């Protein structure tokens, strides 16, 4: 059987390392996992060219919304969040799922972070919507504030919040200093973008979940960890969403998390040494 990750850009993806490690540990000798550069316009023809040997696809940006349009079926969670990072072959065709939510929730729980009383989310894209869904799954009940560089481009996350039954407040990211009296800050910003707020995060009481996984730790993560706050990076999220994908694609419930974690950490260490 075959599977792969699609996106643009996709060369940096850790998914092949994680999935291949899982197949090896599970004894799935006939399985392979590839990587393909694919933009929104290319997703439909790519799907149309796949044979019955394909079990599933992992999707990164910019394909998560496009997948909802092309799938033959969409899970309720993917519909409400507004994006799918997984397509799985089923009897009725391609089924769209969102495992990012599980990835966020598992990463936070693994770090000992339970449902925060109050939270703020930096960024307003697909990952922000998945983070909101994860916080709600964990039991968050208070209003969440979304801080965006451009508040006119928050439609994706506010629409997801409405579908999830938990509307959010929106404010400019430039006003971050007025919104950090919370238990948890979730940064879905690109690599380095949260680092300019490291001093403010250090002075706050908030724990930090930063979706960046390389380079790690970020300046923001070091600032929060330096005052004793809990810090979660993007790798645990990536790991646990991949675990859920392997489960969906193979139909096997017992997925080797430890083997996948070890392979991913080894690859990140290799990349860090290469970059140095």
At CATH level 3, the topology of the largest domain is Rossmann fold
CATH class of the largest domain: Alpha Beta
Number of DSSP-assigned strands? 12
CATH structural architecture of the largest domain: 3-Layer(aba) Sandwich
Order of helices and strands: EHEHEHEHEEHEHEHEEHEHEHH
Mean pLDDT: 96
Residues in β-strands, percent: 15-25%
Distance between the termini: 37 Å
What spatial form do the alpha-carbon principal axes imply? globular
Number of domains: 2
Low-pLDDT segments: none
The value of Rg in angstroms is 18 Å
Give a quick account of the main beta sheet: strands, pairing sense, barrel closure. Answer: 6 strands, mixed
Q: What is the CATH superfamily of the largest domain?
A: Leucine Dehydrogenase, chain A, domain 1
Query: Share of helix among residues?
Result: 40-55%
The tally of helices reads 11
List the strand order in the largest sheet. 2-1-3-5-6-4
Structural class, by secondary structure, is: alpha/beta
């Amino acid at each position: 059987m075959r599977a792969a990750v699609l996106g643009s850009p996709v060369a940096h993806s850790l998914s092949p390392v994680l999935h291949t490690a899982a197949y090896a540990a599970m004894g799935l000798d006939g399985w392979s996992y590839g990587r393909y550069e694919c933009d929104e316009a290319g997703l439909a023809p790519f799907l149309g060219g796949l044979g019955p040997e394909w079990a599933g696809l992992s999707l990164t940006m910019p394909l998560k919304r496009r997948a909802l349009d092309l799938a033959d079926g969409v899970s309720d969670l993917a519909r409400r969040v507004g994006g799918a990072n997984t397509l799985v072959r089923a009897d009725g065709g391609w089924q769209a799922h969102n495992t990012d939510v599980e990835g966020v929730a598992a990463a936070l729980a693994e770090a000992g972070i339970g449902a925060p009383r109050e939270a703020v989310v930096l960024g307003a894209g697909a990952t922000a919507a998945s983070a909101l869904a994860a916080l709600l799954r964990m039991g968050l009940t208070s209003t969440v504030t979304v801080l965006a560089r451009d508040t006119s481009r928050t439609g994706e996350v506010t629409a997801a919040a409405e579908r999830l039954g938990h509307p959010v407040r929106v404010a400019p990211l430039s006003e971050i200093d007025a919104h950090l009296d919370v238990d948890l800050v979730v940064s879905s910003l690109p690599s380095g973008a949260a680092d300019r707020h490291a001093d403010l995060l250090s002075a706050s009481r908030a724990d930090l979940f930063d979706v960046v996984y390389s380079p790690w730790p970020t300046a923001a993560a070091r600032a929060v960890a330096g005052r004793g706050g809990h810090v979660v990076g993007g790798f645990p999220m990536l790991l646990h969403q991949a675990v859920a994908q392997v489960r969906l694609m193979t139909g096997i419930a017992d997925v080797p998390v430890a083997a996948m974690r070890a392979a991913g950490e080894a690859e990140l260490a290799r990349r860090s040494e290469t970059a140095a």
